[in-house]
Amino acid sequence: MSYFLPLVLGFCIAFVAVILPGLINMTAAKISLQEGRNEALSFAAGASVVVFFQTFIAVLFARFISNHQEIVTTLQEIGIFVFSLLSIYFFWIAKKPKKPKTNLKIKGKSNRFFFGMLLSTLNLLPIPFYVFASMGLSAAGYFSFDKIPVSSFVTGVVLGSFVVFYIYIVAFKKIEKKTEFMMQNINTIIGSVTTFMAVVTLLKLLYE
Q: Which of 18, 27, 149, 181 has the smallest set of CB atoms within 10 Å of its CB?
């Protein structure tokens, strides 16, 4: 059960993190519409390979940081400041996001597997995201940095990401309108999450 839980957690975290329309999702959907499902799945597979390495690197960073308590404390203090600034930005400064464009033009007919790897490599945000995600799960006692839990967590993240890509590939037209509500309210959603994280981190520092 301790090995199955990281798999489920990795899957759920990745699913939630990737479900919003983004460059890789929208590109996968567009390739599916223009070139067929097989090409889109090849693209998604390439992107997922890079997600595997990004998540693995992130967990290694998280393990190193967790073994150095002075770094953890410093990151928590920085995190309060960053989360507070993000909350202010998303609640009061950020403009209402525009509807993501679906008329994306994809040039060339190069191998879609490597194209997926390229776009996913250019997206470096998953690394810091999964660093903090794995550290948070470890602090809560739901995850450890042993080999098997790490492998399970990374596998779950890859599966969760690929499932989202697959949903966009096979059902983009059906979910397009449903994603509009999330996009229109994304600033409030993110602002609420960052505020929650700032409060939790502050309370944790005060009671340690």
A: 181
